[in-house]
Amino acid sequence: MPLLVEGRRVRLPQSAGDLVRAHPLLEERARLLRGQSVQQVGPQGLLYVQQRELAVTSPKDGSISILGSDDATTCHIVVLRHTGNGATCLTHCDGTDTKAEVPLIMNSIKSFSNHTECGRLEVHLVGGFSDERQLSRKLTHQLLKLNDREENENHFPIIYGIAVNIKTAEIYRASFHDRGPEEELRAARALTGGPMISIYDAKTEQLRIGPYSWTPFPHVDFWLQQDDKQILENLSTSPLAEPPHFVEHIRSTLVFLKKYPSPTNTLFPGNKALLYKKNEDGLWEKISSAGS
Predict the structure, then answer these.
(1) Partners of residue 274 on adjacent β-strands
(2) What angle do CA 13, 15, 19 make, to 5 degrees?
């Protein structure tokens, strides 16, 4: 598939910097997004996407109007949208297996399209900064920096989170108080090395969680005994740039992993998925376990 910028076919760039230098309008659009104030997005109609998750839906969805994710430092949030039918995919990538994840993202959008439908695919990348280990730069290149600020000789991302309105295609800076349902369960899957997965079925308008499996997290008691500084320095890819709640989030996930060292039977009885659907108030409500 050719790369189009401002409607014109371009050669694949050697770096993100080369792309921006050749097409300054991209930098201008990035500056406009950076200049926005952060909107606090409520849970009504929201599908929050955690790290190593993707969700795709279309404007026809009667339950979901907003896809969103945040807490991206060296990670990238990717939005892929088909201009013809409005099908939109949002995913939170951490560079673990980008080669396998990109086809998964592409196929999730293609599943909404038929071969006679006109339109193009638009991609938006948000995240990454000039971190010391250059993890952001590597991931940006894999997926395709204008999201970097410097303070006291330390680098930080400017934008940590975004939301996309499925109906209008508007993308804006966002933060989220509600990251559920099953926030700790989903975070535990990612922390134990789970791969990128799709979590939402737009046909049934249901969020599907699991069934997941993992082995006991190594040295979980040791990590729970460490102070905040040790957790931050050892369990983050960018210790200086993490949001204030990072350590609390990691601790709660570790406590969850200690409580459920093997989740298959305890969290997923009969090895069945947990299913959620939006209720009349636009909030997630557990409906059953799959197959029950």
Answers:
(1) 209, 289
(2) 55
Measured CA to CA, the distance from residue 81 to residue 118 in angstroms comes to 13
What pLDDT, on a 0 to 100 scale, did the predictor assign at position 19?
Answer: 63
Let me know how many helices (H) and strands (E) the chain has, helices first.
9, 18
169: buried, middle or exposed (CB in 10 Å: 19+, 13-18, 0-12)? middle
Tokens of 157: 């991302």
Give the pLDDT mean for 121-130.
77
> Is residue 131 very low, low, confident or very high in pLDDT (cuts 50, 70, 90)?
low
C-alpha span between 251 and 220 (Å, rounded): 10
DSSP-derived secondary structure for 76-127 = EEEEEEETTT--EEEEEE-SSSHHHHHHHHHHHHHTT--TT----EEEEEEE
Q: What is the pLDDT at residue 232?
A: 93
